[in-house]
Specification:
EmrE-like; two-stranded parallel ribbon; mainly alpha; single chain; 2 strands; globular
């Protein structure tokens, strides 16, 4: 079987007019997900890491259900039910959140963030090996620039410590699971499911898995004690999960997973800016340079519109 390039927007058959809204959804989703580290820091004094991951998903379910009913009422042609791809997306996101929190517990936040930025590498590898899609040249070029930018953004804080190798390993596993999530959501959207149903079904699976994880592994409090921590959990669910993951599902209906996975770099940029604005964490010249390189890499890798061929040509 010959290997074909990873599909871009044109190859997917999406109308060129849909490029702008899909890109806007991708960027907005990245900003929403980028707020999650700040919110986790707000609730961490009162709620354990696995519990906060569970509440992030569980509290979003009513909103996602309402969005699903609204979307399908407006678009009756959308497929109902639960496809294997949507269920796989939920399992993959469960692994992502579980190993992300294990990485945070086992290594530094900088190390965990650094290894999480390898998500697009795994997307390209999985799509190439499993789906026989050869990556386009501009995808690889943009990915290389984004990786350089991600390393510049967080690299000076990364520490090599043999005692933290297990946590670093969990960070890499996190990236692999999130890559599977991207590909599973892309496949579910290609099978005719709406963005809301994909996000809701995947979130239901994730909530069930994380509830079991909390029951077995959580050693810290599960419920918040203060109004500020409860508000932080609500914001984590409504903004970072319902908003961030929902907009990502919208984007993956029109944009390829290989390009959309670069959102992880936008998420890192958004997290750095939000930490600077809300927590007073300094942004140095290297962080600014890293953010600029990430934006440049995304510009290089962005999907191109298919040229319009005149019907008068023979």
């Amino acid at each position: 079987m010959s290997r074909t390039p990873l599909p871009d927007l044109a190859a997917s058959g999406a109308p060129s007019a849909d490029l702008g809204p899909a890109l806007a959804a991708l960027v907005a989703g990245a900003v929403a997900m980028g707020l999650s580290p700040v919110l986790v820091r707000v609730v961490s004094p009162e709620v354990g890491p696995f519990a906060s991951a569970f509440w992030r998903v569980a509290l979003a379910l009513p909103v996602l259900y309402g969005w699903m009913r609204w979307e399908e009422a407006r678009a009756p042609h959308l497929r109902r039910g639960m496809t294997p791809s949507a269920l796989l997306a939920g399992l993959a996101f469960s692994g992502d959140l579980l190993f992300w929190h294990l990485a945070i517990l086992g290594t530094t936040v900088a190390n965990a963030t650094f290894f999480a930025t390898t998500v697009p590498v795994f997307v390209v590898l999985f799509a190439w090996a499993g789906l026989r899609h050869r990556p386009a040249g501009r995808t690889l070029a943009g990915l290389a620039v984004c990786l350089l930018g991600g390393a510049t953004l967080v690299g000076q804080s990364v520490q090599v410590d043999p005692a933290r190798l297990a946590g670093d390993r969990d960070g890499v596993i996190t990236a692999a699971f999130f890559a599977l999530y991207f590909l599973a959501v892309e496949r579910a959207r290609a099978r005719g499911l709406g963005a809301a149903r994909v996000t809701f079904v995947a979130s239901c699976v994730t909530a069930i898995v994380l509830l079991g994880v909390v029951a077995v592994l959580e050693t810290r409090p599960v419920l918040p004690r203060s109004a500020s921590a409860a508000a932080g959990l609500a914001a984590l669910a409504l903004i970072s999960h319902a908003g961030g993951q929902g907009l990502l599902s919208v984007a993956l209906g029109r944009l390829p997973a290989g390009f959309s996975s670069l959102v992880i770099f936008l998420e890192a940029v958004a997290a750095a800016i939000l930490a600077w604005l809300l927590l007073g964490e300094a942004l140095g010249p290297l962080q600014v340079l890293g953010g600029g390189l990430i934006l440049a890499g995304i510009a290089v890798a962005r999907p191109r519109r298919r040229p319009v061929v005149s019907s008068n040509k023979i």
